[in-house]
Specification:
The protein is mainly β. It has helices at residues 9-16, 21-27, 33-38, and strands at residues 60-66, 69-74, 79-82, 90-91, 101-106, 112-116, 120-124, 132-135, 144-149, 155-159, 164-167, 175-176, 192-197, 203-207, 211-215, 223-226, 233-238, 244-248, 253-256, 264-265, 274-280, 283-288, 292-296, 304-307, 314-319, 325-329, 332-333, 345-348. It has a 5-stranded antiparallel beta sheet with strand order 21-22-23-24-28, with no helix packed on it. Strands 1-2-3-4 form a 4-stranded antiparallel beta sheet, with no helix packed on it. The protein has a 4-stranded antiparallel beta sheet with strand order 5-6-7-8, with no helix packed on it.
Length: 351
Amino acid sequence: MKTVPLLFPALWLCAALGLPAAVQAQAAPAAAPAAAAAALPSTPQIAPARQVRHASQAMLLASTMAGPRLVAVGEHGVVLLSDDGGKSYRQARSVPVDITLTSVSFLDGRQGWAAGHAGTILRTQDGGESWQLQRSDLQNDRPLFAVHFFDERHGVAVGLWSLVLATQDGGATWQTVEMPVPEGARKADLNLLGLFADGRGRLFAAAEKGNVLRSDDRGLHWTYLPTGYRGTFWTGVATPDGTLLAAGMRGALYRSTDDGRTWQRVETNTQSSITALAATGRQVVGVGLDGLVLRSDDGGAHFKTESRPDRLALTALVLDAQGRAVFQSRQGVVQDGGGAAAEASATPSRP
């Protein structure tokens, strides 16, 4: 893989995940304003996603299970469906936008939502075969980075500069939630990059400057949970027993067993950024850049760190009903799932 100057790790990570120039500019150091300005995109245009032969090679940024079906979303409005656990994929029949989709959430085998750039939110009622546009904002391209639905009516989407949207009617209408100002800040402008919920209906957002946010009322009000970390969290997960994990830049991974009141750093033995986490039972799996794969069998207290030989930039994963990890990447689907990790060099995070 091409060596990236250490001066620009945050900017490169944004680019690797397909985030827009607004986020790249914020993540870049002051020394690189020209590079950030040069990356400014043109105004996005709403057009249907095209059916293409190479759809499985599109950058994928999120995935989930819709009943037994795997659904993955990514650049150019690509939505891929797999009914055999990731062995084969096909493109969704109808997607009304060709912009980057960053997140996907399903309630069951049929009802789901996806979110992405230009403030776009899509809905499907047939397991991802066809999608309908619920929301977009072309005048103010504040991308959405995550969406989560609790039931058929209540959902939340979050994104650039503390953008939080909530719906109580299945996405027919969305209200903008006014966010509280973080302690010591002048305004609420953190990028909110991931959403995850626990078994008690509480919603958490992974954010910048070491913050995790929590909502106890389905996204209408939020509190900040400082972790002691100063970098950016890209993702998080709540295990079945309520343990919270947040992870992100340079291998940072933090864990809380008291609802987010206190956090402890978990050693990962890596400087590769973590892009996605998933959990089932006591098993936690994480993926990241440079072929990073993390595995825990004790609820995230300790991890074994692996590096895939192909060094793929892994961007998403899902655990199927059997607990098997299926990976997605910047280069598209990963046909061998977690299989290649078994051939990789493994570094345990504890003796």
